[in-house]
Every structure is written in C-alpha cells, then in structure tokens.
C-alpha cells in the first residue's frame, strides 16, 4: 500500500548548547513539560495530521530515544504497514558513512521511503516545540501545485537578520533566500519544515550526492539548486506556537510558558490536538498535609511534603519537608531533601539535592536568561550552593560551591 | 523451559463478591473497580503474577465485563501479550457449553479443555476483591515444602462487617475461615459469625493442574457448585490442605464502606508504601497531562492522579485521573473517580463520586464517615 | 484528519446465516468458517476494509465466538491495533442491556452509545457469509453521488437453492431482493421465490452514522427486530434508498453444498485470481513449515497450504494448513480443514473434513458432488 | 526486573563469501529452508530456551533485517520488559565509531545489558544453522561454577586443524587454545557461542577497550586474557546439528539437508523445538493438473504448472508449464518461465528466469560443490544459459551465456 505523505524527522543533533542535559541523550529525547520529550511534538503532530509513517533519523546517543519510541504505541504508530521507525546510519557493500548533512541523512534512507511509494515527503526537525497541522500545510502545497514548500514564521523586522529568510511574492512563491542577512528583504523566517514532491526530492538528493563539493545540507545545497532550476517553491505562513529549545534558557522559558497557556500560546491541554507521550507508569501523586503547591504541574509518582511554586515537576520527584521549589523545571526521579532551596533552574533526571542545599537564585531583572542547571544524575551535597548561572555536570560535595 | 519461570498458570474470577458493592458494579465488575487513584483492583493481582514470572492468566467473567475488556485490551500494559499463554478472557457463550456460571466449579469446568492443553504444573485460582502485592513464588515454595494437595492463602483479620451481616439469600458470596493445626487446615468454616481476628481465606488457591482437572470433572459431574464447600471441605480428612498466611498489606473490598475506607487508608504514606511494597504495579495508560495545581488552589493530604486540574481546595481525598475541581470548591474526605468534573463553589464531604459525574457550581453534598454518599457514574447534578 | 481516510466505520454481524450451515458452526460462527485454504470468511471483509483505509471495525457476536476471538486476537494481522477505533468485538452480556440479540436492530441498539461517541460520518453494516474483496471507497463515492439516505450493495445472481427452500421457522435468516428503478430501490422483497438472476442483496448497507442512530433508536423503541423489513422497507416511499451493484467475484456461503462448491471453484486459477483481485488478504499467522511433497506423492489441481505433509495422492482438493495425507491414500474432490490427519491407504472422495479430524489407515469415505459427506471437527475415524 | 541471562547475537557480518546473495542484505537475513532466514535459528533457540531478552548487533545493510525483526512478534519477543532489540552503532559525546571487533560491539552496548542487570550473557552468532538448548548450556556453566564457557563440537581429528580448538581436561576445563594448528592437541572446535558471567564480561571488555593494541575480538583478545588470568573456563560439548552456512555451497547443502531430515540431522518439523519465522502472508499454493512435484518443499503463494524435483521453493515462486526445477533452492517471488531448466543452483529473491533459459547443471561426481547462483532481482533472458559454476549478479540478455 502506498502512503500519500511520509514524514522524516531529523533527530541527529547532539544539541550541544544544552550542555549537561544532552551529554548522554539526543536532543529530541530531552524531557519537557512534565511528562513529554521534545520528539513528542513532531510525532504527535504527525499522528494528529493523519500521517502514519514516520522515520526518525538519528545517530547520536540513540539508546534513550530508541527505548522511548519503542514500538510507537503511545503515539498510535504501532503499525504493520508504516508506523514509526528509528533509522540509524548503516554500512553498505560499497562503503559506509555517518550522516554527513541533513540531505545526506535522507539520501541514505531513500530505500526506506521507496518502500512506501509516497507522493509527498515532509521533513521535520526533532528539536522544536510546535503544534502544527501538517495536513493544512500539505493542502497548501497541493493547492499551489508546488514542487517544494517551506513553513515560515513572520518575525519582527528588526529581528529578521538573525534568521534564514524566504523572499516570496504575495502568492507565496519564493524568489530568493537570505541567510542571516544584514539587510533583510523579508521577515519570513524558515522553520526548517519542508514538503517535497517525492520524485523531486529523490532526483535532487541523487544529484546532490553525486556532487563531491556539496555539503549535503538542505539549506545550503538542495534548496538553492531547486531555486536555480526554477522549481515551484512556496512559503507557507504558520501562525501558531513555535520554539526552538536549543539553549538552556529557551528550554526553561518554554517550560514556564506551559504554566501559562492563556498568554504563552502553548497549550498542552487541548483535547483536539493531544500531545502524546510514553507514560512513566508510576503511582498517583501524594500531597501531604504539610505541602504547599501553587501554580504548578506535577506528574505521577511525585511526593510532596514541602513547597512548590510556579514549577514543573516530572514523574517521581520527591520534595521533602521544608524544601522550597520555585520557578524550577525538575526532571524525573529527582530527590530534593529537607530544607533545600531550588530556584529558577533546571534539574536533570535522577539528580539529588542534599539537605539545606541551594540551587539557583532569583535573577536580577534583565538577567532572566540566567538559569542554573544541574545535570542528570548529579548529586549536590548537603548545604552546597549552586549559583544562578552555574552548569553542574559533576557531583558537588557537602557544603561545596559552584 | 518452554513454560514460564514458575511453571504455574492463574485463573482469576472477575465477578467475585459483586453483590456486596452493587453501586460500584452497576456498569462494571469487581475486577475493574477503580482503586488507589489510577488502578483497577485486578491490576494488583495481574502485576503480582507478572512480577513472579507467571504469564499464563485466564480471567473468567460473567457479566458487565466490557469495562474490564477495555481495560485489559491485549494485555500489553502487563506485558502479557504472548503467542502461547498470555492473557485469556473467558466470557459466557463464547463456546457451546459456556453459560453464565454460578459457582467456581462451573466456572472452571468451562475452561477444562483449555486447562488440559496447558503444560504448567501448578494452577492458582483467585478472586479479585483484594488489592495486594502477593508473592506467588513464595506460595509455590511453601506448597512444595509442605507437600500439600491444595494450599489456601489466608489473612489473619476480623471478618468484615458486611460479611457478618450478609443475607442468607446471597448464596454466591460465601466466605470462609480456616481452622489450622500448624499450617494444616483441619476445617473450613462457611460464613462464620465469630468476632475478632480469624484465619480469613483470601479465596486464593494453589494446586496442581492435573489434580484440579480431576477435582472439577468429578464435582461438575455430580452437579456441585462451590469449590470450597463441595470440593475442598470433603477432602480434609483424606488429603492434605494447607494454609499460607499472607502477612503483607492488603485492601479487601467487602462493601461500600470498606471501599471508602480502603481508599482513605492510603492517605497515610506508610500504608501507601506498604501496598506497593516497592514493586511495579501496571495499569492501562491514558494520555493524561500532568496534574495542574492552579494559582489559589490548596491541596492537603491527598492522592492526585495525572490529568487532574485543581482550582479549589482538596483535603483528605483520593482523586483519580482527569478530575476537575473548580475554583472556590471545597472537597473533603472524598473519593472521586476518573473524569468527574466538579464546578466552582461546591462543598462536598464524605462522598464517593463514580466516574464522569458532573456537578454544577454551588452544590453541597455531605455524607458521614460510616455512610459515604455515593454518586453514580455519569450522573449530572445540575 | 483525526478520523480515517474515508471517514467511515464498519459493523460486522458475525453470526449471520449460521442456521444454514449447522455442521460448520457447531464450534464456531459464520465469520470464522475456514475458506480458500488458509483464511476465515471474515478475513476478506476485514482486509477489504483495511485496504480502503477504514480502521474502526466492530464485530457483533452472539454465540460460539471463541474461535473468532482467538482468530482476531488484538487485530494485529489486519493492522487494526489502534488507540482509538481499531477492532472492537461486542459479545453478549458485556454490558448491562446487551443480551443475545435476535435481529440487526437489537444488535446495533446494543452499541448505540459507542456509535454516538464515534466521529466518522458514515457507517457500513455487513454480514459475514460472503467472501469477496469489496471496494468500500467506491461505494461511498456512489452513495455521495446519488445523494442516497441508505445504499444497499447487491449482486445480480440467482437466489441460492438453500434460500429458496428455507423453512419458514428460520425467521432470523431472511434474505432480500431489490426492485430497482435506475439505481433507486423501489421495493425490497423478503424471501422471494423467483428463479433466475435477481438483484440479491449482500446485506451490506451504507448510511450516515447519525441517521443510523436515529433509525435504530426509533425502531428499537417500537420493538422492531429486522433492519430491512422494519426500517428500510417503510422508508422507501419517503426517503432515497439506492442499490450498488457489486460486479466482482464473490463466494456466498448459503449451505453446505455451496460451501463445498465455492471452495472447489477456486481450483480454477481464473477464479482464484478474481477472488483476490490483486489485493492483500490478511489472516492470522501460524507457525507452519512449508508444505512437504514427499517422494512418491502426487498432487494435481489442488490448493495446498503451508504445514501440509503429502505422501499420497491428492486430486482436485483444497487442503488447509497442517493437513497430513498418508502414503497410498487417494484424496479426490475433498475439502480438508486445518490439522486433519489422514493415515495411509485411505480412499476418500467428495468429503468435507472439518479441523483436526483423524482418519486411521485403510478407510474409505465417499460422497457425491451434490451431497458431500461432512466429517465434524475432532472426529476420530478408527 | 533483572533477567537471569540475556543473549547478544553478533549479526554484523557482510558474509562476503555469499557474494551476490549478500550484496544488499546482512548475512543473518539470508533466506533459508523455504520460509526462514538464518537469524531465525538463534532467535528461536533463545525463545525455546526461555531467554526473552535479545540484542542483535548489526551494522551492515540492516534495513531488511530491521524490517524482518520488526517488533519481534513472530518469535514471541514482543515484550515491554526485554524482547528483541536491533542494536546499531551510534555516536557518543566523546567520539564514535563503527563496531571495531566482536568484543567492541558488545562493549559499545554495555549500557543495554546493564539495563537488564543479568547474571549471565550468552554471545551467539547470527550466521549459523543450529538447534541448541541454551538452557542446558547454562546449567552446565552453573554446575561447573565457571566464569566462561564455550560450546564446542567434536570434529574428526584429521579435520581438526581447520578449526579453532579448545584443549580441555576430562572435566571440560580449558587449558589452552589452538587456532587452526598444524598439530592439533584437541578435536573440540569452538562454535563461537559463549556464556560469560556478566561481571566478568564487563570487567574484561572494559580492560580490553583500554588497551590500544587490542583488536577488540573475543577470540584474539578476550579469551586469551581470561586464560592468562586463570579464570575458570569450560568447554561444553554439543552433539546436535550445526552448520556455518558461510559459502554458497554450504548454504545449498544445508537447504538440501532440510529435505532429508532423517539422515541429515536438521529437522525443521519438530514441534517441540519450533523454528519461528515471519510469514509472507501469501495465499495457499496452487498445484495445477499439469504439475509434477516430487520430494520438494513449497511455501505459500507458489503456483506450479511445471516440474519440481528435490528442491525448496520459497513463498510466491511461479513455475510455468514445461519448466523443470531440480536440486534447486529458489527464493521468494522468483518466476521461472515456460520450458526453463533450473538445476543444482540457488536463485535469489525476485529473480526472473526467461523462457527456455538454463540455469546450472548436474555436476560431475566430485564437483557437487559447484552451485550456480543467480542474484536477487536478476533477470535471465529467454534461452540464456547460466553455467554450473556461474555467479550472476547482473541481468543476462536473451540467449546470453554466463
């Protein structure tokens, strides 16, 4: 059976600007919003848009991602024909290589695509928080009779020079690209989400691969070639929530925005566009009679004896008596011991915050981008102090400072 | 090595003691009664079995089993999807000869052919009205050590109030106490009215598969109904029946009050820990969001499951998945099942709300500790 | 785009016309009757649905449905495992109010709540006594074009012999022919006795979900039983009912002789190709070896499934999975169901052997083309 | 939950001596015996031995293997805890590499093993046809109190110098290895199947990895190190059927042995030790009234109008009128047209043998190892002639000769 559109998610990146959080984890597997991981967003968008065949291209630390994806059941992508497949690089009779660039990653998996004989292929990024109906995007692509379409966001003109821009006419047809130009001719920033007619994609990937000078990248090589050949390229305006959570502060910010769906534009509680995720399977949350919880999201397995304000706690977090958690993102199975103060920070999975320890601090106004970070599994000793800009990857002894 | 690690299969009776909790089983059966915030009673038994490596489980159902079928699905959440064995639901009329059964003898008789085709040496039979993490492997060890023909698990506890006051007409809901000499059962008493701690049977039996088959074939041919009265009791003189004391934490649901009390007891973290006993308990996954504690909400001494949205005050409550508590509402000493929505400015105490109840704003409902009010599933209180 | 590609769900009645093939449904129901060497009748309907992108399928069963449940499992072989929709088996007594139904109206009434909760615009209803690859998408297209309220699929063929000779007491096994004006149905005839090609209904209906719900609610409240007689026939004057002619290959099982004949017809490669129509037909996978044709065996004009072991002679036969034919045995014009073992030196003609039959060496069984002998499942002929 | 024993199947090899057959296929995915692939044997042995957690280490052309394994359902290895996992190489924060040797492949997946906290690990080979109860092997290992055990076959003394040999005392304790020695001290040949205590395996793999001079191979590096340190190493004698199908002729031979279970020792029809496989799902076989079939195995989807003698036909093979197939292994979906003669050969999946073409020939006595081979997808033109020793990887035109 052929598929109308197959999705390919580029999930190869290490996400090195997330430092401690992606040391043993591909960026798409980074936890988000209490019970999600970043990859849940493109996957759920696919399912909600009626796409049932998805390849995830990965080569960096895929074990957690592999285990998380499993057979795809949480996303209803547990299918005999189609479903979700993690696609690592592999060796062939005539040599082998890691994925060289985004285009090469797709090229190496053309045989996967051919199996489903799709009319269209949508290329997605595994490291954006975004709720988007790809079917609307496809309808646009079809209506324009396009060979290629790219989803774009309107950005303020004074910020436009920080983005890759699409110069398009009133109909949306693209005439030019500008990569972080000094003098922007457009304020339409590429979201890195593309729809190709499969025959066009196939032809250009094969030509690109034959070119030894190519960097095998969509933005640098494939798109310019399409433009050069006068292919019909269109820009599709997307107005919803979109965030590249590539830095610690943007990851923290996006989490905080989840607590404020009315104003932030990111609503995870929408029954008509559910974001699916693999559940921890832990018991219900226990809130003791000593606990104070105010404007927070907690996940199953949490046990709260202290105070939690304006924070997101992932599955299995324990907050002991007298501990105070505020403006914090606390990932799964973290233990916060008696009297600890955890403020304006991200604490990675399985970390341990000792009695009376201090992690992070309320930033001075204007310094909100300072977010203290404790890496996964790190033990912060009793009464240790982790400063407001610290990035802690290794254990900190009793009373230590960072 | 072709069979499971402990060479045992299990049979679960899903409708046991349904009569004692009529309101709760209006649209379900005992095995699928919600418990402890996000589980169903059968989850504890299934998880115990799986954790002991027993992966051939038959569940015999009688009526109102749709909710259980939906809950169990293919058995995936308990990792019970198998080409051979795995989870096997036995509904009535599925085959010629399977009718709506009365007693355990008829129920087991309906799966005799299946039992004959199995290879496991041992069979566990159990009801589904007790939530506990049970070490089936240890019971096999005890059974082998004692050389018993049948081993009966019991708990040393007082007979529940509802059992003591049972109507004689409820012939299917018998209960049993054991007189022991050492670990050997010397008599099985039906519907005893003794006060104080007793060796109260958990209706959990272990015997060899071949023995069970011949017991049931004989009893069924003679028109017998009850395994305990008609099969076990007559065996006492001639064969060895042993007791196996369960010393862990257990929650036995014997009526509406005990259902309320057993939920409430879990608000003591010690009991909560004791029930789970450090083990994994599996259940069906729902796509709930994390629970949201909104600004101005106040939650104290409560169990809250994912998917809840709390704007009001919650004290001493068990909230199942997807419950909404509106702003200004005070909820105290309540058990609220999944997806019930309580609007703002309500005042509700000592009430069990079944699933998908809808309570409009400003309502006030109050029960007593000894008489929790029950609001049936899907009820709209407008 | 939250629903399936064609925005339709399907309801399959699994026990339709059971009465016409009593021997075959002794331990199963119509939907699970083996056909074409390795399939069950329901496989053709399910595969057609799935190939058309319809993935919300309810199967309403009445009795003897264990074999069907085993066959279907979680729906995996048909890729019908879904979080929402997928395969849904509706057995009796599963919920309060679901009894053993009589007519289609009662059957559909038992799943009204489910239907109300679905989002698909259209509903297909179909029996399970016809094996064919049906293009449901094309029928939706025709339905939309004609603007019909209900569309009925029919085949232009003679009324089967067994239908013509049906006892009046078999009230549940009615059959219908359509009088058409263009594609519009102007009358629905019940149990017509006309000879020659007719517009014989396939009992496959397409209507809008909301319309079906209101039709059934009304009919059920009035105590009606049969959808065709009590709902459709009265609609003819006021609403638009259209016919949709199925022109492909179909095998309608209406009695034991037609069961035999329809299997035999597949020994013509042209019919075999026409039945499958180039599509994939899914069924439960068994772990069979390839078929073994031993030295000295002779096989001619036959369908043979994996797992067969043939030492003797097989001519004009359909052998299902795992059949053994011993040395020196001659098998001619037979249908042999799965795992039947025929020892050596037998001589068998015009015989249907149900599954797991065991025939000792040297036996001779002969029927006639118009009267194939039937050997029931598990029979030992020693 | 911890697992007593986890299995790791080394399936990385290209199997280059199978030439045309493994050009686009890892060796473990090579079809065998009508409906199996080689990997079915270790997988089925695992399941039949009660092992429910299996890693398959692969890096060469894994797409077919990945799709074939799927979620593991055909082997009942579709589990939430454990089950079967295909493990390709991946990149880590500190560099990355393809699997360097057998030991390195296991080393790179230690974190997979640690997840199951096993007491024992059994290392299997993905390219042997063998029915073996690994549980018996484990019982032996436990009874000896061994750190390491290896399964060995007794071979004739005059062939011993072709094998890697284990010199062991009467109790089975190993005192020396000999790799293809001129003067064998033992006739116990290693089957390349090992059981390790996990703690020992972990320790030696880590030490081996730290040694820059190591070739990271079990046979060359790990086993000698164990012996040097006086670890308790035992040889477990296996008496059943075992065959390395590493060459075209051995693959052909093993297939032919399947037709003769009484004498060959390989019985695929044993209900107590089933070999599981993923089924093609094709319709039943049709045998016409013109067909002659004698001593053959056919799989669903075959349609036979010609003559088939002493051959194995995989799913969906068509043999037209007047065609003769003899002493042949014909893989899935091959079409053999009218009057073609296919003799003493292997024909790969999806190949096409034209009308009146000749493939292979009856060998002269003593030349039985000559097996003509037609690669997967190859089209042999009408009346073309493929000689008895040919290895055809590309299409042959009408009347062509090879």
Biggest sheet layout of chain A? 10 strands, parallel
Record field, number of beta strands of chain B: 29
Q: What's the total count of β strands of chain A?
A: 31
Task: For the record, give the distance between the C-alpha atoms at the N and C termini of chain A, rounded to a whole number.
Answer: 58 Å
Please, how many helices of chain A? Answer: 9
Task: Please report the distance between the alpha carbons of the first and last residues of chain B.
Answer: 60 Å
Largest interface: A-B, 32 and 38 residues
Beta-strand percentage range of chain A: 25-35%
How many helical stretches of chain B? 10
User: Averaged pLDDT of chain A, please?
Assistant: 91
Strand content of chain B: 25-35%
Q: What gyration radius of chain B follows from the Cα positions, in whole Å?
A: 21 Å
What assembly state would you assign to the polypeptide chains in this entry?
Answer: heterotetramer
Please characterize this protein's 3D structure.
The complex is a heterotetramer, with two copies of chain A (402 residues) and two copies of chain B (382 residues). In chain A, 54% of the residues are buried. Chain A is elongated. Helix content of chain A is 20%, strand content 29%. The longest helix of chain A is centred in the middle third of the chain and has 13 residues, at 198-210. Chain A is built from nine helices and 31 strands. With 382 residues, chain B is of the alpha/beta class. Chain B is 22% helix and 29% strand. Chain B is built from ten helices and 29 strands. Chain B has helices at residues 41-51, 66-72, 104-109, 112-117, 136-146, 161-164, 209-221, 227-235, 256-265, 269-276; strands at residues 8-13, 34-35, 39-40, 56-60, 86-90, 122-126, 130-131, 150-158, 176-181, 184-190, 197-208, 241-245, 251-252, 291-293, 298-300, 302-304, 309-310, 313-315, 318-319, 324-325, 330-332, 335-336, 341-342, 347-349, 351-353, 358-359, 364-366, 373-375, 380-381. In chain B, the strands form seven sheets. Chain B has a seven-stranded mixed sheet. The longest helix of chain B is centred in the middle third of the chain and has 13 residues, at 209-221. Chain B is globular, with a radius of gyration of 21 Å. The termini of chain B are far apart. Chains in contact: A-B, A-C, A-D, B-C, B-D, C-D. The A-B interface holds A 33-35, 73-74, 268-269, 274, 276-277, 279, 281, 283-289, 291, 293-300, 303, 308, 312-313 and B 36-38, 76-77, 267, 269, 272, 276, 280-283, 285-287, 289-297, 299-306, 309, 315, 318-320. Strand 16 of chain C pairs antiparallel with strand 16 (285-287) of chain D, so a sheet runs across the interface.
